[in-house]
């Protein structure tokens, strides 16, 4: 496992549910590396965005089966992290969304 923080945090997940959580509870969602844990995600978020994290919840999602012509394929499994920021903290990339 590498300690590169940009490798742990893949992309922010901006969805309708995520937007509601951000407005109501100051919770942000990120797609993270599948073998990362909560401690690594916390350190990565705090060092990349310079904010304080209150809580983290992670969810593993199984990849869906998809058909590509006559062949059956499968998307990769992935992991999502719900990051609750401490009161008064915010990340600017989510503010314009």
Please describe the structure with a list of short key phrases separated by commas or semicolons:
31% helix, Alpha-Beta Plaits, four-stranded antiparallel beta sheet, single chain
Put the structure in a nutshell.
By secondary structure, this protein is α+β, with helices and mostly antiparallel strands. The chain contains four helices and six strands; from the N terminus they run αβαβαββββα. It has one domain (5-89): Alpha-Beta Plaits, CATH 3.30.70.
Could you characterize the architecture of this molecule?
It contains 4 helices and 6 strands; from the N terminus they run H-E-H-E-H-E-E-E-E-H. By secondary structure, the protein is an alpha+beta fold. The chain has a 4-stranded antiparallel beta sheet. A two-stranded antiparallel ribbon has the order 4-5. Strand 4 and strand 5 form a beta hairpin. The longest helix is centred in the middle third of the chain and has 12 residues. The chain is globular and about 50 Å long.
The order of strands across the largest sheet is 1-2-6-3
CATH 4th-level superfamily = RRM (RNA recognition motif) domain
Q: What is the string of helix and strand elements? A: HEHEHEEEEH
Provide the domain count: 1
Stated plainly, the CATH topology is called Alpha-Beta Plaits
How much strand? Answer: 35-45%
Query: Main sheet?
Result: 4 strands, antiparallel
Indicate the CATH class: Alpha Beta
Helices, by number, come to: 4
Shape: globular
| Residue-averaged pLDDT | 91
């Amino acid at each position: 496992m590498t300690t590169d923080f940009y490798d742990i945090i893949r992309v922010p997940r901006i969805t309708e549910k995520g937007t509601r959580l951000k407005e109501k509870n100051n919770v942000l969602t990120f797609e993270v590396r599948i073998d990362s844990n909560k401690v690594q995600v916390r350190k990565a978020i705090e060092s990349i965005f310079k904010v304080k994290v209150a809580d983290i919840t992670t969810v593993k999602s199984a990849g869906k089966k998809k058909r590509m012509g006559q062949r059956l394929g499968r998307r990769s499994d992935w992991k999502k992290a719900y990051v609750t920021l401490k009161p008064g903290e915010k990340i600017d990339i989510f503010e314009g969304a």
